[in-house]
Amino acid sequence: MDLGLAGRVALVSGASSGLGLAVAKELAAEGADVAIASRDRARLADAERDVDAAGPGRVHATALDVRDTAAVEAWVGEAADALGGVHILVANAGGPPPGMATEFGVEDYREAVELNLLSSIAMTTAVLPHLRSAGWGRLLYVTSVAVKQPIPHLALSNTARAGVLGYAKSLVHDLGDAGITVNVLAPGLTRTARLESMAGEDVEAGVAEMARSVPLGRVADPEEFAAAAAFLASDRASFVTGVVFPVDGGATGSLS
Question: How many domains does the chain have?
Fold first, then answer.
């Protein structure tokens, strides 16, 4: 199936590893030009090579802290100049520290909101003029299944990512007549470095125990999540907007 991504320009933040890198590679494999950003310069260089090898398009890599609004604006402008515009934003950032709700103070919640919510707003604000100019756009926000079913030991993530969902839903009516869709990706247990860090000393045993809660009986590979992201970024998803798209192997039990 041709997703119609050849020649599109995609921006992916948090793309030096994990879900962000997998999405960047998938979009590149579908023919898109991809601008990637990450705070980790060393991993970013490796990621640039991986994305470049994944597809025929161009790659633009920038070291970036998405909490720095001025730097976000500069990244978007530089990427648009280098690649000839912007059509797709995949707003992704690392998750805040795990813990129960009462273990954190106000500053912890403030930092989580800056990392996950305000960075998404800053990136969106910067790309919207380019999407409007193109008359076509895809806004994708990487959150967590916590936006459907809060996870007790991820209180900071539950709070900040729910804000991303509220913001995304608020954009749908604003942008529909501009040909811009807005969707939220809600990954479940996926084999990333963050998941492995929470698996305990025996990583394989810990991951296997986590997988017991998934109806499919395993955790996801990042590439499986990336395939869902590429579809929502594509021409083929032109009538899909305002959706929370779980990629969780059936683990989310909520009805809404």
Answer: 1
- d(CA 189, CA 200) in angstroms, rounded, equals 15
Its domain, for residue 143, covers 9-188+225-238
| Two structure tokens written together for 194 | 């963050």
CATH of the domain at 22: 3.40.50.720
The DSSP code for 14 is S
Task: For 177-193, write each residue's pLDDT tens digit.
Answer: 999 999 999 998 788 77
Q: Which helix (H) or strand (E) holds 180?
A: strand 180-187
In tens, the pLDDT along 78-118 reads 999 999 999 999 999 988 999 999 999 999 999 999 999 99
Amino acid in position 236: R
Q: Is residue 153 a part of any domain in this protein?
A: yes
Please give the model's pTM, rounded to 2 decimal places. 0.94
Alpha helices for 84-136 (secondary structure H): 106-113, 119-134
Q: What distance in Å separates the CA atoms of residue 184 and residue 143, rounded to the nearest whole number?
A: 7
* Contact assessment for residue 217 and residue 175, using Cβ atoms and an 8 Å cutoff: no
Task: With respect to residue 3, please indicate whether it lies within any of the assigned structural domains.
Answer: no
